[in-house]
Amino acid sequence: MTTESNAKPASAPAEERALILRVQRGDTAAFENLVEGYVRRARAIAMRLMRNTEDADDLVQDAFLRVLQKIESVDPERPFGPWFFRVLVNTGLDTHRRRRTRQTEDETTEVAATGPDPAELTEQSEIRRRFEAALNELPPRQRTIVWSFEVDGMTTKEIAESLGVAEVTVRWHLHQGRRTLRAALADLRA
Amino acid sequence: MTRLFPDPERDLRLSESLRRLEPTPSAADELALIRRIMAKAEPALGQLRHPSRPWWEWMAGWSQLAIPAGVAVSLAAGGVLLTERGSISSAWSEDSVTMSETVLSVATLPAGEIQVSDQVIAAPSDEWLLNGAYQSETPMSPKTR
User: How many CA atoms lie within 13 A of A114 on its CB side?
Assistant: First the structure.
């Protein structure tokens, strides 16, 4: 636990606050603005979770519709982003659990389809293939944590807030995920 | 404020490998997704614009009108009943007086068998009573004399 955990929660920017209030009254244009503002990042996170464009887009859509169902209970004073991404990730994890069997079959097929091609057996492509396989084997939550930390530059505290889990959990997943991925890369380096 | 356990350093090689796997966002796909979301969201937005109220809220809304209206109707009905009660009771008392006079006259008049049977069986009219009254005023008929 850090000393920052008792800090006052950040408040939403005035523009976003006004947008949420308008959405709560059913303003279509305001909701569209909200979607446009968050859709790109939402798709990126959804892709990391689902590893499939179609499923990722379905997830983003589900998350926005869930948000709309709960919008009346949203406090406009609180930042919308962390809450929205928490809804997105939790919806994705639920979907992933339900589809686990099917997803595994698809991924197996995909790996087989992109199997060894003599022209592509360069070191880079092999690294990419193995790294992607290792990444796909990570639990979805762990994968999201590693990605958010390494690519988005989020702190463990920010990730914990966005996922609604303890910071220590994020640190554990980060440690495990990075170790797995580094191992996949280290094998190739040797 | 410094953290007791700072975050680990970013692994550049790992970050780069992950970035390479990140799909390039397509603007067209993004726009299509926004349109899809907006189409699906329209019913929910409409619901927010015109929220449907649960039955108890309807009841509460209507009760503001229904309760005073019910009280007013009850008061009016009570007033009508009180007014009508006066006229009904006076009519009833008049009937009672008529009836008691009839009974008294029957009791005091000398009655024949037919008159008694008519009284018991209920006479078709009050004519016998008039006859009785007439006879009582003329005790002796010319024939009797």
Answer: 13
pLDDT for A143: 92
Are A23 and B44 inside 8 Å of each other by CB? no
Residue of B nearest to A21 (CA): B48
CA angle at residue B129 from B123 to B132, to 5 degrees?
Answer: 130
| pLDDT score recorded for residue A69 | 92
CA distance A173 to A141: 8
CB-based contacts of B99, cutoff 8 Å, min separation 6: none
With H, G, I as helix, E, B as strand and everything else as coil, classify residue B60: helix
Closest partner residue to A25 (CB to CB) among B22, B34, B48 is B48
Cβ contact B18–A151 (<8 Å): yes
* Measured distance CA(A76)–CA(A19) in Å, rounded: 9
Whether residue B1 lies within 8 A of chain A, CB to CB, comes out as: yes
pLDDT at B29 exceeding the cut of 80: yes
Return the HEC string of B62-78: HHHHHHHHHHHHHHHHH
Say yes or no: A9 contacts chain B, CB-CB below 8 A.
no
A36 close to B (CB below 8 A): yes
pLDDT at A2 over 70: no
A111 near B CB under 8 A = no
ipTM over 0.85: no
Q: Give the range among A94-98, A130-134, A173-177, B84-88 with minimum mean pLDDT.
A: B84-88
Taking a C-beta distance cutoff of 8 angstroms, is the pair A95, A59 a contact?
yes
Over the stretch A17-72, which tens digit does the pLDDT of each residue have?
Answer: 999 999 999 999 999 999 999 999 899 889 888 888 888 999 999 999 999 999 98
CA torsion A163→A169→A170→A174, rounded to 10°? Answer: -140
Rounded distance between C-alpha atoms, residue A48 and residue A56, angstroms: 8
